[in-house]
UniProtKB/TrEMBL annotation:
Source lineage: Bacteria, Pseudomonadati, Bacteroidota, Flavobacteriia, Flavobacteriales
Pfam family, one: DHQS_C
Cofactor(s) listed in the protein's UniProt record: Zn(2+); NAD(+); Co(2+)
PANTHER family assigned to the protein according to its UniProt record, in alphabetical order: 3-DEHYDROQUINATE SYNTHASE
Limits of the 3-dehydroquinate synthase C-terminal domain: 176-316
CDD domains, A to Z: DHQS
Residues making up the signal peptide according to the UniProt record: none
EC assignment: 4.2.3.4
Organism: Polaribacter aestuariivivens
Function comment: Catalyzes the conversion of 3-deoxy-D-arabino-heptulosonate 7-phosphate (DAHP) to dehydroquinate (DHQ).
Gene3D superfamilies, sorted: 3.40.50.1970, Dehydroquinate synthase-like - alpha domain (1.20.1090.10)
Gene Ontology terms: cellular component: cytoplasm
Name by which UniProt lists this protein: 3-dehydroquinate synthase
Length: 352
């Protein structure tokens, strides 16, 4: 599989990835290599990775607890302290080996330590392969508010090895599939149709095309001033739903993809009401999503709390919530203002 060239770094696949990383370490002559993992990737992914890495440099493993609940500044401080205590300097390299939490947090940690050290992303979940590891976004949550603290910073390279997907659950595979559906709806309807028809799906091909799409968008709009906003389809309401379930003591957390899937159904419905996105296509989106994800009933008494969380979305300007909506598949409209009543109506539509 050929490599993809992003704005300042390559995305390598399978065996070429490890060869390229070993060459990078020689070329850059790093002083120390830090590998950031959680308990799951340390057990299931680290043994394979370390067997592929060829280097005589000192290697230190830093382990954090898994889960979105640990994607915060407190965890970052722990990692910064560990790097400091282990003798990290400006010539150190941080390798992130894990899912979206590891990738987002690790990139942020590296970008801030001593005003920035090099980092390499090695995503091990479908979600991190098709989304979090590519595009230069790093960051952590502020309480339950998603990705409020962060910055744009590019890795030295991204290494994608689909063999790591054998270590994750079906639920996590479904979580990543939501981002692929998003790329299909907003940018390349062939992807959406492949998932809808479920004929001869090759996960490696879906991953490659998804990364290709994200890279094409980011190359045109690296700082999310215009086109890149389409990658937020389903995320405005989806992030609020994800945050609500994260902070609710009496509800099971939703995965990122499960929440975004709900958001895509709701935002498709809003698109119908505001922009004339055909109801047949709204139902198509809803049917595909409900064929993949278990139904999560949004309780009416929770609508207000979810809407309150919308007010903290990163894309808001002057307190106004901005949605990415659809005129049609592959045809979007940015910065759409949506009345609270219609947002509630969209959640009722999802429930129906």
């Amino acid at each position: 599989m050929k490599s993809i060239q992003a704005v300042s770094y390559p995305v390598h696949f399978q065996e070429k990835a490890y060869e390229s990383l070993s060459n990078l370490i020689v070329q850059k002559n790093y002083s120390t290599i830090f590998i950031l993992v959680d308990e799951n990737t340390f057990e299931h992914c680290y043994p394979k990775f370390i067997s592929k890495l060829i280097t005589d440099k000192a290697i230190e493993v830093i382990e954090i607890e898994s889960g979105e609940i640990n994607k915060n500044l407190e965890t970052c401080i722990g990692v910064w302290n560990a790097i400091t205590e282990l003798g990290g300097d400006r010539k150190s390299l941080l390798i992130t080996l894990g899912g979206g939490v590891i990738t987002d947090l690790g990139g942020f940690v590296a970008s801030c330590f001593k005003r920035g050290i090099d980092f390499v992303n090695i995503p091990t979940t479908l979600l991190s392969m098709v989304d979090a590891s590519v595009g230069g976004k790093t960051g952590v949550d502020l309480g339950v508010l998603k990705n409020q603290i962060g910055l744009f910073a590019n890795p030295e390279m991204v290494l994608v090895d689909t063999d790591y997907l054998t270590t994750v659950s079906e639920r996590e595979i479904k979580s990543g599939t939501a981002e692929i559906i998003k790329y299909g709806i907003t940018y390349d309807i062939k992807l959406f149709n492949q998932i809808k028809e479920n004929k001869g799906l090759q996960i490696a091909d879906l991953i490659f095309r998804s990364i290709e799409i994200k890279n094409e968008v980011v190359l045109q709009d690296p700082k999310e001033k215009s086109l890149r906003k389409i990658l937020n389809f389903g995320h405005t309401l989806g992030h609020a739903i994800e945050s609500f379930y994260l902070e609710s003591e009496d509800k099971e957390n939703l995965t990122h993809g499960e929440a975004i899937a709900i958001g895509m159904v709701c935002e498709s419905y809003i698109s119908n009401k505001l922009l004339g996105f055909k109801i047949k296509k709204v139902n198509e989106v809803k049917n595909v999503i409900l064929s993949i994800y278990d139904k999560t009933t949004l309780l009416k008494e929770d609508f207000g709390s979810i809407i309150d969380l919308l007010k903290h979305d990163k894309k808001n300007v002057n307190g106004q919530v901005n949605f990415v909506l659809l005129n049609d598949f592959e045809n979007h409209q940015l910065d759409c203002k949506v009345a609270e009543e219609l947002i509630i109506e969209s959640m009722e539509f999802y429930n129906s």
